[in-house]
Specification:
The chain has nine helices and six strands; from the N terminus they run βαβαβααααβααββα. Strand 5 and strand 6 form a beta hairpin. The chain has two domains: about 160 residues, 3-Layer(aba) Sandwich (Rossmann fold), CATH 3.40.50.1240; about 45 residues, no CATH class. It starts with a strand and ends in an 11-residue tail after the last helix. It is an alpha/beta fold. A six-stranded mixed sheet has the order 3-2-4-1-5-6. About 45% of the residues lie in helices and about 15% in strands.
Length: about 230
């Protein structure tokens, strides 16, 4: 069987003008990931990445640290959904009857501090599929994009290969939703626990793809620096 390692990007710059760039901590996470890959003897025959800056930079930093000369192939199928666009599209409708969201929209509370609980409400509404908004990629379309991307990779690399895909929490969530056949609600409950620069491993053959392990970030915990374990 072959192996596909789904690697979440390092910490991005939440709350800054350019969210997509890695924070200083995100860069450290990526380099530690590279150290872990080298020490564990994990070598990749093929490497893919989404086209987002935080995904590409995580791949480049980790591979350099791992002393890998693998070429990175970019594929937008592994890009995150537009979480800010989804939030803008759904948050006003949620504000009716929800005091927390209403205060968030009216800027009466700390928007950075309360972004996560509001975002979880937004995602629940978006993923339900009951409130489609023109111009906003649906949860169904997002799943199809990511799933097709994975099948394309498997078709391209062939059997018994070691493959890395540097991506984001959303695509990993979509694949868990599909492979484990769980509801979107359960899939997103897994999403909130996905650590930056963590590794989720899939095993694949000609006819089957299955989960080997999920959200491994032990190498970050082993550093002794608790601030390296981040979720956003």
């Amino acid at each position: 069987m072959g192996a596909i390692y789904l690697i979440r990007h390092g910490q991005a710059s939440f709350g800054h003008e350019n969210y997509d760039q890695l924070s200083a901590r995100g860069q450290t996470q990526a380099r530690l990931l590279g150290d872990y890959l080298r020490q564990a003897g994990i070598r990749f025959d093929h490497v893919y990445s989404g086209t987002l800056e935080r995904q590409r930079d995580t791949a480049q930093l980790a591979l350099a640290q791992a002393e890998s000369a693998a070429h990175v192939i970019e594929n937008p199928a592994f890009n995150e959904f537009d979480h800010l666009g989804v939030t803008r599209a759904y948050v006003k409708g949620l504000a009716e009857g929800d005091s927390l969201v209403e205060d968030f929209v009216a800027n009466r509370i700390d928007r950075v501090k309360y972004f996560q609980p509001v975002f979880e409400k937004v995602v629940r509404r978006w993923a339900s599929g009951e409130f489609p908004i023109p111009g906003v990629e649906s949860w169904k379309a997002f799943n199809e994009r990511v799933g097709s991307g994975l099948q394309q990779v498997i078709s391209e690399v062939g059997r018994s290969q070691n493959v890395a895909i540097f991506t984001s929490g959303g695509p990993i969530t979509a694949l868990m939703h599909q492979l484990l056949e769980v509801s979107s609600e359960i899939a997103f409950s897994m999403n909130w626990s996905i650590v930056n620069a963590s590794v989720t491993k899939l095993m694949y053959s000609e006819h089957k793809t299955s989960l080997a392990y999920f959200n491994d970030h032990g190498y970050l915990q082993g550093s002794g620096d608790r601030t390296l374990v981040t979720f956003r």
